[in-house]
């Protein structure tokens, strides 16, 4: 090969290598990270690259709406869906049981027929169950449906996974096994309403908070077998560790693990 021809060939190969090295010419793999957002993120520029998103329906309390629900729902439905097991758009509801301070709230039920008997306005499992049913119904019909219509996204509750957000920052009963049973009854009432609308129901909490609020769940409870979304990690590595932990309820499995990084709640899919 002549010197001149060899020089030309070197130049051609160098140019080709430079073209292949230009950033963005090769398509990057889509992210598998999900995010959860709610009223604290109102006005924020939401992450553009997400596989799925979980949106809070309430504004911190089950009686209040997330004022940005419509906008955030529209954003959630534009997720990539890169994780097959995780729907693009999911929802979560705030939960509580104020039965011990029922004289301080206007939403405690006075009547209702439940699996625990008739609610008579007392601090009972029956009224706790009725309270949960009514709070879930109110969140769906008063907050979710108008927001979904405004966002022009799916309005059927059956199209969503509904996570029950169980945290000690909300009002719960405590101090006895009977109090924990009443708390479970509230979550059962919420679960039964949501499943009656065709929705899938999962449970969000940390193991510590769940044990403080709900305790051990009987095998015949409507909470048994529900998927768990575990909180508490601060890194992807920590989230992966949580994926291997036991579920919150018997017969369930951990399918999501939340980790807080920077200003965002991120989520790793466990399955």
Distance between the termini: 58 Å
Write down the overall geometry: globular
The stretches of 5 or more residues where confidence is low (pLDDT under 50) are 1-25
Element-by-element helix/strand order: HEEHEEEHEHEHEHEE
Strand content: 15-25%
Q: What is the correct CATH architecture?
A: Alpha-Beta Barrel
Q: Under CATH, the topology is which?
A: TIM Barrel
Average pLDDT level: 92
Q: Supply the number of structural domains.
A: 1
The total of beta strands comes to 10
Main sheet, how many strands, which sense, barrel? Answer: 8 strands, mixed, barrel
Strand order in the sheet with the most strands: 1-2-3-6-7-8-9-10
CATH class: Alpha Beta
Sum up the structure in keywords:
271 residues; alpha/beta; TIM Barrel; 8-stranded mixed barrel; two-stranded antiparallel ribbon; globular; disordered N terminus
3D structure, described in words:
This protein has 271 residues and is α/β, with parallel strands linked by helices. It has a single domain, classed as TIM Barrel (Alpha-Beta Barrel). The protein is 32% helix and 19% strand. The strands form two sheets. The chain has an eight-stranded mixed beta barrel with strand order 1-2-3-6-7-8-9-10, surrounded by four helices. A two-stranded antiparallel ribbon has the order 4-5. Helix 3 packs parallel to helix 4. The longest helix is centred in the middle third of the chain and has 27 residues. It is globular. The N and C termini lie far apart (58 Å). The N terminus is likely disordered.
